[in-house]
Amino acid sequence: MANEPMKDTPESPEKQRPKSYAHAPRLPEGPVTLTELVSGDGPLMLEIGPGRGRFALELCAHNQTQRVIALEIRRKLAFQLDDRLAQKGYGKRARCFAEDAREVLPRLGPMACVDAVAIHFPDPWWKKRHAKRMVVGDALVNEIARVVKPGGLVLVQTDVLERAEAYNPRFAEHEAFESLGSPYVDESPFVPARSNREAIAIIDGLPVYRMVFRRK
Ligand SMILES: C[S@@+](CC[C@H](N)C(=O)[O-])C[C@H]1O[C@@H](n2cnc3c(N)ncnc32)[C@H](O)[C@@H]1O
Fold first, then answer.
1. How confident is the model at residue 8 (pLDDT cuts 50, 70, 90)?
2. The pLDDT of residue 40 is above 50
3. Which residue from 206, 215, 114 is spatially nearest to 164, judged by alpha carbons?
4. Would you say the pTM of this structure is higher than 0.70?
5. φ, ψ for residue 109 (rounded to 5)?
6. Which residues 6+ apart lie within 8 Å of 46 measured at CB?
7. Which tops the pLDDT comparison, 116 or 124?
8. CB contact at 8 A, 45 and 115
9. How far apart are CA 49 and CA 118, in angstroms?
10. H or E element that contains 179
Protein backbone atom coordinates (compact mmCIF):
# COMPACT_ATOMS: atom_id res chain seq x y z
CA MET A 1 0.00 0.00 0.00
CA ALA A 2 2.77 2.40 0.98
CA ASN A 3 4.38 1.91 -2.45
CA GLU A 4 1.21 2.64 -4.48
CA PRO A 5 1.47 5.72 -6.72
CA MET A 6 -0.44 8.76 -5.43
CA LYS A 7 -3.22 9.22 -7.98
CA ASP A 8 -4.54 12.62 -6.93
CA THR A 9 -1.26 14.51 -6.70
CA PRO A 10 -1.57 17.68 -8.86
CA GLU A 11 0.98 17.73 -11.64
CA SER A 12 3.62 20.44 -11.69
CA PRO A 13 3.09 23.27 -14.25
CA GLU A 14 6.01 21.76 -16.19
CA LYS A 15 4.15 18.45 -16.54
CA GLN A 16 0.87 20.15 -17.41
CA ARG A 17 2.47 21.94 -20.38
CA PRO A 18 1.18 20.46 -23.63
CA LYS A 19 3.75 18.13 -25.12
CA SER A 20 2.85 19.10 -28.70
CA TYR A 21 4.03 22.71 -28.28
CA ALA A 22 0.87 23.75 -30.11
CA HIS A 23 1.30 27.12 -28.38
CA ALA A 24 4.59 27.79 -30.19
CA PRO A 25 4.43 31.17 -31.98
CA ARG A 26 3.17 31.02 -35.56
CA LEU A 27 3.14 33.58 -38.33
CA PRO A 28 -0.16 35.32 -39.14
CA GLU A 29 -2.23 33.81 -41.97
CA GLY A 30 -1.89 35.23 -45.49
CA PRO A 31 0.72 37.70 -46.71
CA VAL A 32 3.14 38.67 -43.92
CA THR A 33 5.06 41.95 -43.70
CA LEU A 34 8.29 40.90 -42.01
CA THR A 35 9.14 44.39 -40.83
CA GLU A 36 5.92 44.47 -38.79
CA LEU A 37 6.93 41.41 -36.77
CA VAL A 38 9.86 43.13 -35.05
CA SER A 39 10.49 46.72 -34.02
CA GLY A 40 13.44 49.04 -34.51
CA ASP A 41 15.44 50.02 -37.55
CA GLY A 42 18.62 47.95 -37.15
CA PRO A 43 19.73 45.36 -39.70
CA LEU A 44 17.20 42.57 -40.22
CA MET A 45 18.50 38.98 -40.28
CA LEU A 46 16.35 36.12 -41.52
CA GLU A 47 17.57 32.83 -40.08
CA ILE A 48 16.30 29.53 -41.45
CA GLY A 49 16.43 26.52 -39.12
CA PRO A 50 18.00 28.10 -36.01
CA GLY A 51 17.81 24.90 -33.96
CA ARG A 52 18.77 25.76 -30.38
CA GLY A 53 19.29 29.37 -31.40
CA ARG A 54 22.80 30.28 -30.31
CA PHE A 55 23.38 32.35 -33.47
CA ALA A 56 20.27 34.52 -33.06
CA LEU A 57 20.99 35.06 -29.36
CA GLU A 58 24.61 35.99 -29.99
CA LEU A 59 23.74 38.34 -32.85
CA CYS A 60 21.33 40.21 -30.57
CA ALA A 61 23.86 40.27 -27.73
CA HIS A 62 26.57 41.79 -29.93
CA ASN A 63 24.44 44.40 -31.67
CA GLN A 64 21.90 46.39 -29.66
CA THR A 65 19.82 47.23 -32.74
CA GLN A 66 20.02 43.90 -34.61
CA ARG A 67 16.63 42.53 -35.61
CA VAL A 68 16.14 38.80 -36.21
CA ILE A 69 13.31 36.71 -37.60
CA ALA A 70 13.96 32.97 -37.33
CA LEU A 71 11.88 30.19 -38.89
CA GLU A 72 12.20 26.81 -37.19
CA ILE A 73 10.14 23.81 -38.29
CA ARG A 74 10.34 22.06 -34.91
CA ARG A 75 7.76 23.59 -32.62
CA LYS A 76 9.56 22.82 -29.41
CA LEU A 77 12.77 24.47 -30.60
CA ALA A 78 10.86 27.46 -31.98
CA PHE A 79 9.00 27.91 -28.70
CA GLN A 80 12.18 27.62 -26.65
CA LEU A 81 14.15 30.08 -28.79
CA ASP A 82 11.35 32.65 -28.91
CA ASP A 83 11.00 32.34 -25.13
CA ARG A 84 14.75 32.71 -24.62
CA LEU A 85 14.90 35.79 -26.85
CA ALA A 86 12.13 37.36 -24.78
CA GLN A 87 13.78 36.41 -21.47
CA LYS A 88 17.03 38.03 -22.61
CA GLY A 89 15.14 41.24 -23.37
CA TYR A 90 15.39 40.94 -27.18
CA GLY A 91 11.74 39.97 -27.71
CA LYS A 92 10.66 43.19 -29.45
CA ARG A 93 13.42 42.99 -32.06
CA ALA A 94 13.94 39.24 -32.39
CA ARG A 95 11.38 36.48 -32.82
CA CYS A 96 11.34 32.81 -33.73
CA PHE A 97 8.28 31.29 -35.40
CA ALA A 98 7.37 27.63 -35.70
CA GLU A 99 7.16 27.39 -39.46
CA ASP A 100 8.46 25.39 -42.40
CA ALA A 101 10.58 27.97 -44.22
CA ARG A 102 9.90 26.34 -47.59
CA GLU A 103 6.16 26.73 -47.12
CA VAL A 104 5.99 30.24 -45.66
CA LEU A 105 8.67 32.11 -47.59
CA PRO A 106 6.43 32.71 -50.64
CA ARG A 107 4.03 34.74 -48.50
CA LEU A 108 6.72 36.81 -46.76
CA GLY A 109 7.48 40.33 -47.92
CA PRO A 110 7.87 43.05 -48.92
CA MET A 111 10.54 42.65 -51.59
CA ALA A 112 14.07 43.59 -50.52
CA CYS A 113 13.28 44.00 -46.81
CA VAL A 114 15.92 41.71 -45.31
CA ASP A 115 19.59 42.70 -44.86
CA ALA A 116 20.96 39.19 -44.51
CA VAL A 117 19.99 35.50 -44.45
CA ALA A 118 21.73 32.75 -42.48
CA ILE A 119 21.28 29.03 -43.06
CA HIS A 120 23.58 27.04 -40.78
CA PHE A 121 23.96 23.28 -41.18
CA PRO A 122 20.46 23.08 -42.60
CA ASP A 123 20.11 19.43 -43.48
CA PRO A 124 20.64 16.86 -40.79
CA TRP A 125 20.05 14.12 -43.36
CA TRP A 126 22.92 13.33 -45.64
CA LYS A 127 21.87 10.14 -47.37
CA LYS A 128 20.98 10.35 -51.07
CA ARG A 129 17.38 9.32 -50.42
CA HIS A 130 16.96 12.37 -48.20
CA ALA A 131 17.94 14.81 -50.94
CA LYS A 132 14.31 15.64 -51.80
CA ARG A 133 13.81 16.94 -48.24
CA MET A 134 16.72 19.37 -48.61
CA VAL A 135 15.87 22.81 -47.26
CA VAL A 136 18.06 24.67 -49.75
CA GLY A 137 16.19 23.98 -52.97
CA ASP A 138 15.72 26.16 -56.05
CA ALA A 139 12.35 27.46 -54.84
CA LEU A 140 13.82 28.59 -51.52
CA VAL A 141 16.71 30.36 -53.30
CA ASN A 142 14.23 32.24 -55.53
CA GLU A 143 12.29 33.39 -52.46
CA ILE A 144 15.46 34.49 -50.70
CA ALA A 145 16.44 36.48 -53.81
CA ARG A 146 13.08 38.24 -53.57
CA VAL A 147 13.31 39.31 -49.91
CA VAL A 148 17.01 40.21 -49.62
CA LYS A 149 18.10 43.81 -50.29
CA PRO A 150 20.63 44.50 -53.05
CA GLY A 151 24.06 44.13 -51.43
CA GLY A 152 22.60 41.86 -48.72
CA LEU A 153 24.54 38.72 -47.77
CA VAL A 154 23.42 35.11 -47.59
CA LEU A 155 25.53 32.72 -45.49
CA VAL A 156 25.09 28.98 -46.02
CA GLN A 157 27.36 26.65 -44.10
CA THR A 158 27.64 22.92 -43.50
CA ASP A 159 30.16 20.32 -42.44
CA VAL A 160 29.03 17.90 -45.18
CA LEU A 161 31.00 18.48 -48.40
CA GLU A 162 28.40 16.69 -50.52
CA ARG A 163 25.76 19.12 -49.21
CA ALA A 164 27.98 22.15 -49.79
CA GLU A 165 28.51 21.02 -53.38
CA ALA A 166 24.75 20.76 -53.82
CA TYR A 167 23.97 24.16 -52.27
CA ASN A 168 26.70 26.18 -53.96
CA PRO A 169 25.48 26.17 -57.59
CA ARG A 170 21.93 26.96 -56.50
CA PHE A 171 23.12 30.41 -55.39
CA ALA A 172 26.31 30.87 -57.40
CA GLU A 173 24.54 30.20 -60.72
CA HIS A 174 21.44 32.19 -59.79
CA GLU A 175 21.18 35.48 -61.69
CA ALA A 176 20.43 37.42 -58.50
CA PHE A 177 23.55 36.34 -56.59
CA GLU A 178 27.31 36.47 -56.81
CA SER A 179 29.56 34.21 -54.75
CA LEU A 180 32.10 35.89 -52.47
CA GLY A 181 34.09 32.64 -52.09
CA SER A 182 35.96 30.34 -54.40
CA PRO A 183 33.68 28.61 -53.62
CA TYR A 184 34.19 28.68 -49.83
CA VAL A 185 35.17 31.50 -47.47
CA ASP A 186 37.37 31.01 -44.41
CA GLU A 187 35.18 32.82 -41.93
CA SER A 188 31.56 33.75 -41.37
CA PRO A 189 30.73 37.43 -41.99
CA PHE A 190 28.69 37.31 -38.78
CA VAL A 191 31.39 36.40 -36.25
CA PRO A 192 31.45 36.44 -33.28
CA ALA A 193 27.93 35.00 -33.56
CA ARG A 194 28.08 31.23 -34.12
CA SER A 195 25.37 28.61 -34.52
CA ASN A 196 25.37 25.67 -32.11
CA ARG A 197 26.50 23.24 -34.79
CA GLU A 198 29.15 25.63 -36.04
CA ALA A 199 30.60 26.05 -32.54
CA ILE A 200 30.72 22.27 -32.05
CA ALA A 201 32.34 21.72 -35.46
CA ILE A 202 35.04 24.25 -34.56
CA ILE A 203 35.72 22.58 -31.19
CA ASP A 204 35.80 19.14 -32.85
CA GLY A 205 38.13 20.38 -35.59
CA LEU A 206 35.68 19.44 -38.34
CA PRO A 207 35.85 21.26 -41.67
CA VAL A 208 33.14 23.87 -42.12
CA TYR A 209 32.19 24.69 -45.73
CA ARG A 210 31.03 28.31 -45.63
CA MET A 211 29.49 29.95 -48.66
CA VAL A 212 28.63 33.65 -48.80
CA PHE A 213 26.57 35.13 -51.62
CA ARG A 214 25.80 38.78 -52.25
CA ARG A 215 22.49 39.91 -53.69
CA LYS A 216 23.26 41.83 -56.89
C1 LIG B 1 21.08 20.28 -38.23
S2 LIG B 1 20.01 21.41 -37.44
C3 LIG B 1 21.08 22.86 -37.31
C4 LIG B 1 20.56 23.85 -36.32
C5 LIG B 1 21.33 25.20 -36.29
N6 LIG B 1 21.15 25.91 -37.54
C7 LIG B 1 22.78 25.00 -35.98
O8 LIG B 1 23.61 25.22 -36.90
O9 LIG B 1 23.10 24.63 -34.85
C10 LIG B 1 18.88 21.89 -38.74
C11 LIG B 1 17.72 22.72 -38.20
O12 LIG B 1 16.90 23.14 -39.29
C13 LIG B 1 15.54 22.92 -38.95
N14 LIG B 1 14.79 22.78 -40.19
C15 LIG B 1 14.84 21.73 -41.06
N16 LIG B 1 14.03 21.95 -42.09
C17 LIG B 1 13.45 23.16 -41.90
C18 LIG B 1 12.49 23.93 -42.62
N19 LIG B 1 11.99 23.48 -43.77
N20 LIG B 1 12.11 25.13 -42.11
C21 LIG B 1 12.62 25.57 -40.94
N22 LIG B 1 13.51 24.88 -40.20
C23 LIG B 1 13.93 23.69 -40.68
C24 LIG B 1 15.59 21.68 -38.09
O25 LIG B 1 14.44 21.51 -37.29
C26 LIG B 1 16.83 21.94 -37.25
O27 LIG B 1 16.57 22.71 -36.12
1. very low
2. yes
3. 206
4. yes
5. -160, -170
6. 34, 68, 69, 70, 71, 114, 116, 117, 118, 144, 147
7. 116
8. yes
9. 9
10. strand 177-179
In whole angstroms, what is the distance from residue 92 CA to residue 155 CA? 24
Going from the Cα of 82 to the center of ligand 1, the distance in angstroms, rounded, reads 15
Q: How far is the CA of 123 from the centre of ligand 1 (A)?
A: 7
Helices (H), ranges, the chain: 13-16, 54-62, 75-87, 101-104, 138-147, 161-172, 196-204
The pLDDT score that the predictor gives to residue 134 is 79
Q: What CATH number should be reported for the domain whose range is 20-25+32-215?
A: 3.40.50.150
Q: Which amino acid is at 204?
A: D
Res 38 pLDDT > 60: yes
For residue 140, give the 3-state DSSP assignment. helix
Helix axes 196-204, 54-62, angle to 10 degrees: 100
Ligand 1 proximal residues by C-beta, below 6 Å: 48-51, 71-74, 77, 100-102, 120-122, 124, 135, 195-198
The protein residue whose alpha carbon is closest to atom 14 in ligand 1 is: 49
Residue 3: count of CB within 10 angstroms of its CB: 4
Give the separation between CA 72 and CA 28, rounded to whole angstroms: 15
> Catalytic: 123?
yes
For residue 1, pLDDT over 50 is answered with no
